[in-house]
What does this fold into?
Amino acid sequence: MFDQIIIGCGEVGRRVADHYLRAGASVAGLVRSAPGRSALRERGITALEGDLDRPRAGGLRINGRRLFHFAPPPREGVLDTRVAHLIDVLQAQAGPRRLVYISTTGVYGDCGGAWVDEQRQPRPLAPRARRRWDAEQRLRRWREAGGGELVILRVAGIYGPGKLPLERLRKGLPVVRGQEAPYTNRIHIEDLARVCVAAMERGRDGEVYNVSDGHPGTMSDYFDRVADHFGLPRPPRIGMAEGADALSPGMMSYMAESRRLDNRKMLRELGVELAFPDLGAGLAGLDPEREAMR
Ligand SMILES: NC(=O)c1ccc[n+]([C@@H]2O[C@H](COP(=O)([O-])OP(=O)(O)OC[C@H]3O[C@@H](n4cnc5c(N)ncnc54)[C@H](OP(=O)(O)O)[C@@H]3O)[C@@H](O)[C@H]2O)c1
It folds into this structure.
């Protein structure tokens, strides 16, 4: 029996696992690939076999008390079949007592730049956000049917080591100019890992928490500040109307949504002190030479 199981034990999961391993707890993780499993074992994380894309998650065994679910939904459609497969496993195998799920702030849809707290009714627009909303609702039904305790984290854009738009900046791709650019929200990956642990330890059952550093900015400002920090040229500006030709469909779908995330519930109830409370602090903590080498 593991103390913690992390489904989708990638960048965030490995940081959460390190926290528990340092505290002397046992952790198991699920990834799909064989090299991914080797990487887990090298860090002292037991690697589980399974694949959420297959019915009953390809024979996944859930032998643990507490579960983090960090795997993303599939790339297509509006349903999260991966969560559906996981729930089948949990129901068949006396699943965990408590589950922390990483969702996204995309479930709120476009909010016209308004401040958004957890009371706001989700109105997901993009298919990727609709898949997340589907996952949230499936997990809620699992909880309501007596499955176990559930805490949902609606997470903003993750940045940090290896998670910066440097390639985009080097290519000189344009961004939409300031007045037309949407608000975006961020959280440093190290702080997100701390929030995940705090949510497992202190999050209230059945609650949703917005996870961001509480300092939204426009998308163009974000790219400018990263460019300045790494000595790269600021990206050229275009108008929104030109965006459809110059930007990828994925980027355009982000441009169609603007909101400012209220993170006060996270700070108050989870008691997390952010190490990187704004973008300036997060960038200052990065090693430019190391990032440039990635
Ligand atoms: N990027 C953002 O700004 C952002 C914002 C909000 C939320 N999120 C979400 O936050 C979560 C954690 O992020 P992260 O950076 O830690 O992601 P990550 O490094 O990509 O890790 C995701 C993990 O899920 C595993 N996985 C994917 N499909 C699977 C399947 N069918 N069966 C089993 N495992 C599977 C992957 O395994 P393999 O490596 O073997 O494929 C990987 O280890 C993700 O769900 C992400 O979508 C991201």
About this structure: The chain has a mean pLDDT of 95. The chain has one domain: 2-161+186-214+260-276.
